[in-house]
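So, can you check this one?
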Amino acid sequence: CGSGCGVVMIAVIVVTTMYNATIVA
């Protein structure tokens, strides 16, 4: 895990959550 890995992981989780919310909505 290199520099900014935590930020990338959080970004992926946020995008996935927003995507799922859009599908449900």
